[in-house]
Design brief:
Blueprint lengths: L5 H18 L1 E6 L1 E7 L12 E5 L11 E9 L9 E6 L3 E5 L5 E6 L16 E5 L7 E9 L14 E7 L1 H19 L5 H15 L6 H15 L9 E6 L11 H21 L5 E4 L1 H10 L1 H13 L2 E4 L13 H19 L5 E3 L10 H6 L5 E3 L15 E5 L5 E5 L12 H10 L8 E6 L10 H10 L8 E3 L2 H9 L7 E3 L15 H28 L5 H13 L12 H32 L5 E6 L5 E7 L2 E7 L3 E4 H4 E2 L8 E3 L2 E3 L3 E5 L5 E6 L4 E2 L9 E6 L15 E4 L1 E10 L2 E10 L2 E10 L5 E8 L5 E8 L6 E6 L2 E6 L5 H5 L3 E2 L3 E5 L3 E7 L4 E5 L2 E8 L12 E12 L7 H9 L3 E5 L13 E3 L4 E8 L6 E7 L5 E7 L3 E7 L5 E7 L3 E6 L4 E8 L1
Parallel strand pairs: 11-18, 11-19, 12-13, 14-15, 15-17, 16-20
Antiparallel strand pairs: 1-10, 2-3, 2-4, 4-9, 5-8, 5-10, 6-7, 6-9, 16-17, 21-24, 21-46, 22-23, 23-25, 26-27, 27-28, 28-29, 29-30, 31-32, 31-37, 33-34, 34-35, 35-36, 36-45, 37-44, 38-39, 38-41, 40-43, 41-42, 42-45, 43-44, 47-50, 48-49, 49-54, 50-53, 51-52, 51-54
Helix pairs in contact: 1-2, 1-3, 2-3, 2-4, 2-11, 3-4, 5-6, 5-7, 6-7, 13-15
């Protein structure tokens, strides 16, 4: 007689497993449920302040984003004495159980929550009540609820389940035995003896389970125990597993809900640690911990205890998990500075791993920032999302634009939501691209994105997989232990140089343009304020606003989270961030002006305007004050009265503004009748900046049926039209020749001032758009006369050269690229740069520089960017290449206008104005000036901009006791000079240097 086939074995085993699952919990009575509903969260002490509703299963309690405090009451029947009693609760939303003091103790999630079910089931509905009830126990349970699932979806707002139930523990254990063995067998090849024997034992056990009862469950368990207890031999690969709950600080839910998600997730992790002694959990983002400290201090104390015990790993080195394409360089420094300081101060731990599992590409400046902050390792997995090309490694050495290297690991399962099942381990073993030189891989298990974290199922699987024959062995341990072992193999790993470009989500470089504009303005405003405050503190001994600056910085860093700044959150997130940005920017501007006024008054000046230049080079430019224009010169990082700074200009010469042309001493711009530009003639170089026969500054509109993250790669093939010129006027306005244009398309209006300034070398485009289109993308391009196979793109602390050709699939995939203040095409003798004050999405194809201005996707914010926008871009033709032309300076000048304040009354003690900092190398930029975090040192952050070795003298405009080089955490590295205000600096290409100055 032949044996049954494997397919029959498997079918019967799965049927038995399904019956086991249904038999684990036996409901015995309903819980009495009362809810007090409010539109926003209220604290435990006010839990009965909302609208009171008595609920039975099926009753509605709320709408999307409603909140409620629930009370669950009942009594364990006397008949269940000796039984294991649990509560089964599902409110079709998220729920956080609390103790009698209101401290979170367990999070629950509706079982129908959105999730990738191939990775597991997100629902958490089981509450352990008593391992062996006596009967008669009173149930008196409070919980804080949200009417949303893990992903911010509305799931009817109706009570689904609230019952007292018996848990049949032996059945529960057998269910997980079946699940692990079935999943293991399905991964093994058909020829595997191990597979066949697992199927046979499962088949035999299933035949014992025609009826689910205690005796049959015991016999079935005994039958499969042999296969479940078989162990592996010497491993070729060991998998390090750590519990994970990727927490988006805002995305498909508002920030306020993230605070409660944190409580639910953290309390669940603590709850499971009590049940599973091997369980290791990790969580990143100090911002999340800070919220727990503020809102749930007793929960936070319990987390600290587990951290000290070594069961909970603080992860990451940044304040949040930020976008690293758009965030400015100094902002990334502050992410690390505040992130590492928090973990050190709160937990006494030095963070060595950057934890960025989900950001949309990684700037080539990051390795240097990490190493100069004491961070040796990096973990991510997002590169697995690339559309066209597979990243060649999971373990590799990442080399940044300056040559700094950092050991990087991508978990080979390509997810941070691993189900921790046998299929996870087999995928890791089969997919690990560096398994020929590495015996170690990382697995992040749990439910994430909206929090939640590992559930019972993850930990039950891992308990059976420690050393299970057929899969690699698994160790639950901190990720730092894994990286330290991986480091021992690093000499065999390959090196990958440059940015880690994600071939997906390029739309996030443009979506939610107002938010991106505020981010740029805040970064620049904070730089200005810190310089002003440092000058007042250093020169005059007045208080430095360290505490308020830290608060503002941390809020700005929060909004750089990788689903806020990129534009991929719901509308409420941006309604709230835009409101806060406006308040913060106004406050920073006010603080800056008040500080500058104080400095000016201490110079003895009164009743006159004073100009401040925070950039490290002398500036000569036109400024407007009280309706009058003045040509002024202000020294590097210094200040002058308008009277002293002004140049006498008797007459404005060389300017012309006509309906079809603009002209100054250096440039002549010609327009077509449709408003486009057909010529930008460089009079000094005697050459045309635009390609002959083409049109520039045409506002092209493309069909865009993408979402906030992505737009069609072939958008050029789906032109919707161009904005139409309806009005154009020209005039001279002080030292400016101006053409004003008005364009329309559909319901949208674009107003633009095209400006040539006397003596200026740029064509500026000051733009206002009332954008009302849906499913459209607005772009503008400049076909240049420059031929180059590479485009120069400014990024944080340097630049990248990217291809303008599309010869390979890698080049094709990088059509949309990120740049900060400039993008430039240069030949050795000539170039053209496109500057901007708040845009990040570009394309450079052959000789065309293209700027992505606005999008209007429908998801997740159906109103995204349908609003009024302001932005400025500028075209800068230049002799020589972009280095010789100091294009980076033009970018900083466009983004950092000089500040003019009027001082009313002079201080009685007059102090001569000083230049706080001078640097004598034109390619060295001073990115930040601030007071040190923990001492009275002055901190100066500089970097080399040209990509070459450089040296220069830094001069401090005050007496100094010492000048030291420090790391990015402001720890001293070496003394450069004692009792001198000058020090020689030597830079490697793109090197960042932090200087610590002890003033006399």
């Amino acid at each position: 007689m032949p044996y049954e086939t494997n397919s029959i074995f498997l079918k019967k085993a799965k049927a038995a497993m399904s019956q086991l699952e249904k038999s684990i919990y036996e409901p015995i009575s309903l819980l009495a449920v009362t809810a007090w509903v409010t539109p926003e969260p209220v604290v435990y002490a006010e839990r009965t302040s909302g609208q009171q509703i008595h609920l039975e299963p099926g009753d509605k309690w709320g709408d999307l984003w409603d909140c409620a405090w629930f009370h669950f009451g009942g009594m364990v029947p006397d008949s269940q004495a000796g039984s294991k009693i649990v509560l089964l609760i599902d409110v079709n939303g998220e729920l956080c159980l609390v103790d009698h003091e209101g401290t979170p103790c367990q999070g629950l999630t509706n079982i129908n929550s959105q999730f990738d079910y191939s990775l597991g089931l997100p629902g958490k509905r089981v509450v352990d009540f008593s391992p062996a009830a006596k009967g008669g126990e009173v149930i008196n349970l409070w919980a804080d609820g949200g009417c949303n699932d893990l992903f911010g979806n509305y799931r009817s707002g109706r009570l689904k389940e609230a019952v007292i139930a018996v848990c049949h523990e032996e059945t529960r254990r057998l269910y997980y035995d079946f699940e692990v063995l079935i999943d293991l067998a399905e991964q093994l090849p058909e020829t595997s003896i191990r597979k066949t024997r697992i199927y046979q034992c499962l088949y035999d056990a299933a035949n014992q389970l025609s009826e689910i009862n205690t005796d049959n469950v015991r016999r079935a368990s005994e039958r499969i125990a042999g296969e479940l207890n078989k162990r592996g031999g010497d491993p070729s690969l060991t998998v390090s597993a750590i519990g994970h709950a990727h927490m988006d600080l805002a995305w498909l839910w508002p920030i306020r809900e993230t605070v409660r998600k944190g409580a639910r997730t953290f309390s669940t992790a603590l709850y499971n640690m009590e049940k599973y002694p091997d369980y290791m959990f990790g969580a990143s983002q100090p911002q999340l911990y800070q919220w727990m400290k503020e809102y749930y201090p007793k929960l936070y104390d319990k987390v600290k205890e587990r951290i000290q015990e070594g069961r909970w790993e603080p992860q990451g080195a940044m304040w949040v998990e930020p976008d690293t394409n758009i965030s400015g360089g100094e902002a990334l420094v502050r992410q690390i500075l505040y992130g590492k300081r928090f973990f050190k101060q709160e937990f006494g731990q030095e963070m060595k791993v950057l934890w960025l599992p989900d950001v949309f590409g990684y700037t080539g400046s990051l390795p240097q920032l990490l190493k100069k902050s004491g961070v040796d390792y990096m973990m991510t997995q997002k590169l697995s999302w690339s559309v066209y090309n597979t990243h060649p490694h999971h373990s590799f050495i990442w080399e940044g634009i300056d040559g700094t290297q950092v050991l990087t690991h991508l978990p080979p399962e390509d997810t941070y939501n691993s189900p921790a099942a046998p299929r996870s381990l087999v995928k890791i073993e089969n997919s690990y691209l560096d398994r020929n030189v590495s015996e170690n891989a990382l697995m992040l298990f749990g439910i994430g994105d909206g929090g939640g974290g590992p559930g019972e199922e993850h930990l039950e699987r891992l308990a059976r997989e420690k050393n299970l024959l057929g899969v690699p062995p698994v160790i639950q341990e901190p990720s730092i232990n894994f990286f330290q072992r991986l480091d021992k193999e690093a000499s065999r790993f390959q090196t990958f140089k440059g940015e880690l470009y994600l071939e997906k989500h390029q739309g996030t470089l443009t979506t939610q343009g107002r938010n991106k504009r505020y981010n740029r303005k805040m970064e620049k405003a904070l730089r200005e304020l810190e310089f002003a405050a440092s000058l007042l503190w250093a020169a005059h001994g007045e208080a430095y606003p360290a505490a308020r600056l830290e608060e503002i910085w941390k809020e700005v860093l929060l909004y750089q989270f990788h689903d806020i700044l990129p534009g991929s959150s719901i509308a409420r997130v941006y309604d709230e961030s835009l409101e806060r940005y406006a308040i913060l920017l106004d406050e920073v501007h006010t603080m800056t002006k008040d500080t500058y006024k104080r400095i000016a008054s201490m110079a003895g000046w009164s009743n006159q305007p004073v100009l401040f230049n925070s950039l490290p080079w002398d500036r000569q430019e036109w400024v407007e004050w009280n309706g009058n224009w003045h040509l002024v010169s202000v020294p590097a990082m210094g200040y002058r009265t308008l009277e002293k700074a002004e140049h006498e200009v008797s007459v404005v010469e060389g300017l012309m503004a006509g309906s079809r042309e603009l002209e100054n001493e250096k440039l002549k711009v010609m327009f077509d009748e449709d408003g486009s530009i057909v010529s930008v003639y460089d009079k000094l170089c005697g050459r045309e900046a635009l390609h002959s026969g083409t049109k520039a500054n045409v506002f092209m509109i493309y069909h865009d049926d993408g979402d906030a993250w992505d737009f069609p790669h072939d958008y050029r093939e789906t032109v919707a039209g161009a904005m139409t010129l309806v009005r154009s006027t020209a005039h001279i306005e002080g030292p400016q020749a101006v053409v004003r244009q008005e364009y329309r398309y559909g319901e949208s209006i674009l107003l633009q001032k095209i400006i040539l300034t006397m003596g200026g070398s740029m064509v500026e485009f000051e733009t206002e758009v009332d954008w009302r289109e849906s499913g459209k993308m607005l772009r503008v391009s400049f076909p240049t006369s420059v031929s180059s196979d590479q485009v120069n793109c400014e990024i944080q602390f340097g630049y990248l050269k990217r291809p303008t050709t599309r010869n390979t699939l890698i080049e094709f995939a990088k059509d949309e690229i990120c740049a900060h203040q400039y993008i430039d095409l240069s030949q050795p003798d000539y170039g053209v740069a496109l500057l901007n004050d708040c845009k990040y999405g570009f394309s450079a194809l052959h000789n065309v520089l293209d700027l992505n201005l606005l999008r209007s996707p429908a998801y997740p914010d159906p109103t995204a960017d349908r609003a009024e926008h302001k932005f400025t871009y500028a075209l800068y033709p230049h002799a020589g290449d972009f280095i010789q032309a100091s294009v980076y300076r033009k970018g900083y000048e466009l983004n950092t206008p000089m500040v003019v304040v009027e001082v009313i009354q002079a201080d009685t003690a007059q102090h001569a104005p000083i230049q706080l900092i001078q640097v004598d190398n034109p390619y060295v930029m001073v990115e930040a000036v601030k007071k040190a975090e923990d001492s009275d040192h002055l901190i100066v952050r500089l970097y080399e901009t040209a990509g070459t070795a450089a040296q220069g003298m830094i001069s401090i405009g005050l007496d100094c006791l010492s000048i030291e080089e420090a790391d990015l955490m402001e720890n001293p590295i070496q003394v450069l000079q004692n009792n001198d205000s000058r020090a020689e600096l030597h830079f490697a290409p793109f090197e960042i240097k932090t200087i610590r100055v002890q003033l006399a």
